[in-house]
Amino acid sequence: MQRKPSTNGFTLLELLVAMAILTVVLGLVFTSMSQGVDMQRRTERDVSLDASLRRVSQIVTQDIRNSPYGLLTSVPYASNATGFSVTKATDTAVQNAVGPSSGFRTSTTTSVIAQTGFTWPTNTTYLLINPVQANATLLTTSSAVTSSGSINLPHGTQINTVCLTANTIVQRVVPIGIQYNESQRMLYRQVHRPDATETVPLAYGVTAFSVNYIGTNGTSYTTLDDLRAAGTQINRMELNFTMARTKGSGEQMRSLSTTVEVPKLFTLTSNPLKFVPAGATLSC
Question: What is the rounded distance in angstroms from the CA atom of residue 90 to the CA atom of residue 241?
C-alpha cells in the first residue's frame, strides 16, 4: 500500500510571516540594547567629567590650603581673575633677619642667623617677612650658601623691600601658580624649584576658569591688586570651573564652584600677610 506524502511542516507564507515577526522582535531588542549602551556611555561621560572637575578643584584648593600665612603672591603668575600664585613651605625652620643695619629696604643682601647645617642652593626662593607690619616679599638667592651663624643671602638685583624689625624673619618656600589659558582651554600649574621650573597641564577642555578674592570686609575683588588698593586683606577665595567634553556633534558641559578659606598655617599675625611687590614704597 502506497503511503501519502506527509503534509506536516511550514508553508512558504508561514515562514515569511515568522521571519517578519522575528525581524521586528530583533529590531526592538537591538534598539533597546543600543539605547542602553548609549545611556551607559552618557552616564560614564557624566561621571568622568564630574570626577575630573572634582579632582582639579581638589588640587587647586589644596595648594591654597598649604600656603603658609595665608599669603597670595604674583610669582610665577599674577593673582588676578584667571590665575593666582601661592607659596608652599619646604620646611618649618625660620631664620632671624639681622641686617644690613642701614639701607635694609634697598639692599640686595639679607643677613640672617642660620643654624648648623644650613645649606641653600642657588635659586632658592624665600619669604622675607615683617610680622609687625604683616608684610612679606619673595626673594631668590643668586648663589649657593652653605654656612652657619651670621651669613648673607645674596639675591642679585632684587631688593629687600620690606622693613627690618627685631621680628623680621626668613623662610624657604616654593612658589606655585595656577593659570588659565583660554585659547588652549587648558589650566596650567607651575612650580618653581631651585633646580628646575615645572609647568604641567592640570586640566584640558576647560572652557572657563575665574577667581574672586573676598576681603575681610566681605567685598569681592577680581584681582589681588584691587583688594590691596582697597586697604583690606584676603579672607577667602571663590573658584569657578567649567569643563567640556565632546558629545556627538556638540559638547557636554559641567561647572563647579567652591569657596576656600585662606588659611594661616603659622600664626605670626592676627590676619593673613600682605604680599609686597618688589620695589614697593613702604614707610618703616
Answer: 29
